[in-house]
Known about the structure:
Chain A has 266 residues and is α+β, with helices and mostly antiparallel strands. Chain A has helices at 9-19, 72-79, 141-154, 209-215, 260-264; strands spanning 2-6, 25-31, 34-40, 46-53, 60-62, 66-71, 87-92, 98-104, 111-117, 122-127, 135-140, 157-163, 166-172, 177-182, 196-199, 203-208, 224-229, 235-241, 245-251. The radius of gyration of chain A is 20 Å and the shape is globular.
Amino acid sequence: xxxxxxxxxxxxxxxxxxxxxxxxxxxxxxxxxxxxxxxxxxxxxxxxxxxxxxxxxxxxxxxxxxxxxxxxxxxxxxxxxxxxxxxxxxxxxxxxxxxxxxxxxxxxxxxxxxxxxxxxxxxxxxxxxxxxxxxxxxxxxxxxxxxxxxxxxxxxxxxxxxxxxxxxxxxxxxxxxxxxxxxxxxxxxxxxxxxxxxxxxxxxxxxxxxxxxxxxxxxxxxxxxxxxxxxxxxxxxxxxxxxxxxxxxxxxxxxxxxxxxxxxxx
Amino acid sequence: xxxxxxxxxxxxxxxxxxxxxxxxxxxxxxxxxxxxxxxxxxxxxxxxxxxxxxxxxxxxxxxxxxxxxxxxxxxxxxxxxxxxxxxxxxxxxxxxxxxxxxxxxxxxxxxxxxxxxxxxxxxxxxxxxxxxxxxxxxxxxxxxxxxxxxxxxxxxxxxxxxxxxxxxxxxxxxxxxxxxxxxxxxxxxxxxxxxxxxxxxxxxxxxxxxxxxxxxxxxxxxxxxxxxxxxxxxxxxxxxxxxxxxxxxxxxxxxxxxxxxxxxxxxxxxxxxxxxxxxxxxxxxxxxxxxxxxxxxxxxxxxxxxxxxxxxxxxxxxxxxxxxxxxxxxxxxxxxxxxxxxxxxxxxxxxxxxxxxxxxxxxxxxxxxxxxxxxxxxxxxxxxxxxxxxxxxxxxxxxx
Lengths: 266, 400
C-alpha cells in the first residue's frame, strides 16, 4: 500500500511534464525510502532516472515494494487538472490495478479525486556505473536552457569542449556557426548564479540537441543544473530538488570516426 | 519455405520467446537481411497499374530496385544499418524441394495462361504471384545498386539464412531480418520478422527463450525443425509440429522417435538425416571474422548513372533519394545508451507480476488458464492494458 502526499503538487506536475516527451510509459518503483523511475526513450539513446525521497512527501507510507506501470501521457493529462498550489496525494493498493490521485486546494475549498488505470510494463533495467567524471559543471539551469536553445538555431548537434579556459558549446550548420563559452565564476551575490567548473581532464563530446532541449524542460524544477562529462561516455545532466531527490538524464554521445569501429563492438 | 508450423508452435508453447517491438527500438543496430526473400516480396508486392510489372520505358522490370531503394532508405532513416545477404548455390539436398518448386511453377504458369484466356483477374493475380522468381540478373542489379548506395552486400556461398545466422553468432550484426523461420534452425539468436513495415511492429524471436520455453537443447530444436518439415528432406507423415516437440522431448532425438513412434508413421524413402543435420549445424558460410562490414558514402554519380541513365528512373526522385541517404548517414553516428550501460535486469509492473503468477498457477491447475495466459502474451508488446473482466467497470476514470 502506497500513500504519499506532496504539499507542492506542482513538483510532480512539472516532473511529468518534462519527461513526457521522452518516454511513453514507465514503472514507478515505490518502497519505504521513496519513489523512483528509470526509463529509456524508444530509440534507447537517452535515459531518465527520477528519485523522490520519502522526505519529499508528508506523510509518506509504503510498506511493500510496489511497481506501478503508468502511461505518462495519460498521467500528465490527469495532473493538468491540479492547480499549481494544490496538495497532491497518491494512493495505490498492493493488489489494485489503478493509482488514485487526490488534489486539495490551498484553502481546502476544493477536493478532486481521480483513478488512473495502471498498465503492464516489462522493460530493461540498466545498471548505471559510478563513474568518476573528467569534468563537472555546476551552473544556473536557465543558463543551460538558453545555451541549448541558441545552439539549436545553428544545427542539430552541439559539441561541448571543456578545457582550462572554460566550457565551450559550439554548433554549426548551413546558415551559420557559433559558440558560447562559460567560465568559472563564484562571485555572484546569489549563489544560484555561480558557475563552478571542476576539471580533471579536458574532454570534447558531441550530443544531439533535440534531447538536450527536452532535458532542459526540467529547468523549472531546479535553479541549478550539473553536467558531468567523460571521454566516450554518456553525458549526465542532473537537476536536484533540494535534498529531496533529483531527476537525472543520461545521453549517449555521437561517435567520431564512426562506421567501421562502430560495427565491431556490437 | 522455411520450417512448417514453427511460428505457431512457438506461439503455443513459449509465447514469451516472441515479442513485438516498435521498429524504432532497433536504432543503430546492424541487421542482416535475407535479400532474396526481400526482393521476392517486392516483385510480387510492387505492381504497376493494373496487373503487370512495374517497368521502365524499355519494358524492364524495376519493382525489385524500386522497392529495395525505398526500403533501404527507410531503414537508414530509422537509424538501422542493413547488410544484405544474397543466396549462393543451393545445397544438393535442396534439389528435391527445388524440383517441387519447379513443378509448382510450371503448374502456376499453365493456370496463369488459362486465367488470362478466361479474363479471370483474381485468378490471374493469384497465379501470377506463384510464377514470380527472382532471376540472377535481378539479383545482380540489386547488388550493384546497393553497393553504389554504400550498403554492405554479402554473397553467401550457399543459403543466405545460414550466412545471416553466422553474422549474428559472431556478433557482426544484432539480428537477422527475414520471414523465413529456418534462420533460427541455423542458429540465429535473434530473428526479426515484419521488418518490412516502417510504421508497424517488428516481431522479435529469441532463440534462447525458445529453447528455454520448450525445455530442449539446440540439437533437439534442429531435430524438431526437421520433423516439422524443412527444405532439405521430406518429413515423416503424420508427425506435425506438436507431435515433433512431444516425441523429441520424450525420445531425445529423431533416432529415438523413429524407434518408438506408432507404426502408422512411416519414414520417407528419402530421409538423409545426418546430412540434413549437417546443413543446419555446419552450413557452408563465410566465417564472421572474415567479413568486413562497411557502410560508405553514397556514390552519387554512379547511382544516378545506373538508375536514371540506365534504368530510366525519374531524375528528381533519385536526387531526393540521394539527399535522404546523406542525411541518414549524419545521424548514423548517434550511439545507443545500452552500449555504454549494461542491462542488469527487468523492471516489471506489480500488476504484470501478479498476473504472471496467476497464469502460472492456472497452467499447473488446468489447460484453461494456460491458454488464456498464452492468448494474453500473444497480444504482444511489453506494455498492454489489463484485460481482466470486471475491472473495467469500477475503475473507469471518474471525476468527482
